[in-house]
């Protein structure tokens, strides 16, 4: 893992092999140091990262942003760190192919007193973002695959179970948020974070809304 901020780390990038897009997509996971214990967000399959988690004190919760992040490492992380697994209830069926979640959610909630769970459907029915105001002064927004930076462009991501109307509503909801740092679960490069101010954030949303990456066809719409 690589440290981004005093309380936030990112995993070693791993290529997503399920798609057929060029350039290829890279997966990223994030370790957040919270007052109640370390939290893992998104997918983290590399054993080297798992060892880094152990050296950082383990994790007590693991949150998925959507079902595409379910993989063979889920039960390993649960067992190794006695970590509770969380996902949206609409992701439950797919996630249970790998591991049994400890709890699910279906609406906006606040966990651990300061970790905001915010369903943002569209990329998948159970897509969820997480918002956290760090004591170090920056507000982190984990957007999963709802939007990403692909080949130098900000795009939304469409898959087989995407709903474009829901996706546009989620982007509209994003416009009311004021993040300082975006954390992306999938990108076409090795840099899955971006610091933003309000004008930059709104410009990103405008660009992404008009630039869908259609994974069903393996191409970006013009």
Automatic annotation (TrEMBL):
<feature type="domain" description="Metallo-beta-lactamase">
    <location>
        <begin position="26"/>
        <end position="186"/>
    </location>
</feature>
<dbReference type="InterPro" id="IPR036866">
    <property type="entry name" value="RibonucZ/Hydroxyglut_hydro"/>
</dbReference>
<dbReference type="InterPro" id="IPR001279">
    <property type="entry name" value="Metallo-B-lactamas"/>
</dbReference>
<protein>
    <recommendedName>
        <fullName>Metallo-beta-lactamase domain-containing protein</fullName>
    </recommendedName>
</protein>
<dbReference type="Pfam" id="PF00753">
    <property type="entry name" value="Lactamase_B"/>
</dbReference>
């Amino acid at each position: 893992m690589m440290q981004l901020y005093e309380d936030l780390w990112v995993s070693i990038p791993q290529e997503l092999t399920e798609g057929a897009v060029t350039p290829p997509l890279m997966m990223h996971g994030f370790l957040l140091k919270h007052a109640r214990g370390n939290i893992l967000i998104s997918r983290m399959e590399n054993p080297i990262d798992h060892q880094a988690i152990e050296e950082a004190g383990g994790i007590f919760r693991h949150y998925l942003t959507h079902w595409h992040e379910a993989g063979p490492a889920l039960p390993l992380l649960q067992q190794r760190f006695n970590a509770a697994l969380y996902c949206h209830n609409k992701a439950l069926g797919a996630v249970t192919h790998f591991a049994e979640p400890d709890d699910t959610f279906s609406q906006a909630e606040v966990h651990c007193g300061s970790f905001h769970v915010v369903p943002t459907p569209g990329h998948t029915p159970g897509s969820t973002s997480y918002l956290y105001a760090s004591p170090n002064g920056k507000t982190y927004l984990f957007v999963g695959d709802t939007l990403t930076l692909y080949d130098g462009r900000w795009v939304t991501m469409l898959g087989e179970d995407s709903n474009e109307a829901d996706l546009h509503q989620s982007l509209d909801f994003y416009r009311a948020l004021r993040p300082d740092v975006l954390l992306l679960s999938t990108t076409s490069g090795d840099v899955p974070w971006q610091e933003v101010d309000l004008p930059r954030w709104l410009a990103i949303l405008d660009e992404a809304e008009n630039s869908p990456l259609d994974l069903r066809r393996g191409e970006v719409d013009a």
